[in-house]
Amino acid sequence: MDNILRKSLTKHLESFLTEERKLLLHKVLENRTRHITVVVEDLYQTQNISAVMRSCECVGIQDIHIVEGENDFQIHKAIAMGADKWLSITHYQKENDPMLSCINDLKSKGYTIVATLPDNNCCLLDELSLEKPIAFLFGTELTGLSKEAVAAADKTVKIPMHGFTNSFNISNSVAIIVSHCIEKLRNSDICWQLSQEEKEELLFEWVQKSLNKPELLIKRYLEQFY
């Protein structure tokens, strides 16, 4: 679909929304980013992956990458609270080296790959540069990231901890790291927002998700011209 047609359709579909809804969609778009993305490897507890998605959506991260190994991806609807509806989710399913496929895809798009580990040799969050786009890798609930994922990462980072235990729950780790980095981005001169084309593509998608049977509205609109 070309840009002119998409813009025309978006404007038409927006006419069926309340003014309040339109304002919300545009406000959220202005705060969306792909400068930071999250990769989760083989989580098996639905409440954890759902909480991760909810945290990412809340702070404005658009893209989530789900690597499935032994465990199938499932959403806990009560915990996700619809966050998955507004995210761009890429799945890497049970193939040969799904994690490495994900990492290679992200590297080809210019992302620095950062593994999250509770290791004394890792850099601290405050020491991590955000100049280039970053993909944070998070591992399974019990064993953390696979050795292959850690080996393929460009950097490793840890959350400062001062208690007897040495790790957070996976969903808490994601929330802490992305919240910290997003706020740091917002207070920087780094260009972290979506491009105009990305905003237009997402707006078209979100407007449809805000309507009942948008495909019928689109069909009727197009029938006027074709």
Strand content: 5-15%
Subunit arrangement of the protein: single chain
**Rg, Cα atoms, Å:** 19 Å
CATH topology of the largest domain: Alpha/beta knot
List SSEs in N-to-C order.
HHEHEHHEHEEEHEHHH
Report how far apart the termini are. 14 Å
What would you call the structural class?
alpha/beta
Strand order of the largest sheet: 3-2-1-6-4-7-5
Note down, in words, how this protein is organized.
This protein is of the alpha/beta class. The protein folds into 2 domains: 31-194, SPOUT methyltransferase, trefoil knot domain (Alpha/beta knot), CATH 3.40.1280; 195-226. The chain contains 10 helices and 7 strands. It has helices at 3-14, 19-30, 46-59, 77-80, 83-86, 98-108, 147-152, 170-186, 196-209, 214-223, and strands at residues 36-41, 63-67, 88-92, 112-116, 123-124, 134-138, 155-158. A 7-stranded parallel sheet has the order 3-2-1-6-4-7-5, sandwiched between helices. β1 (36-41), α3 (46-59) and β2 (63-67) form a beta-alpha-beta unit. The longest helix is centred in the C-terminal third of the chain and has 17 residues, at 170-186. The relative contact order is 0.19.
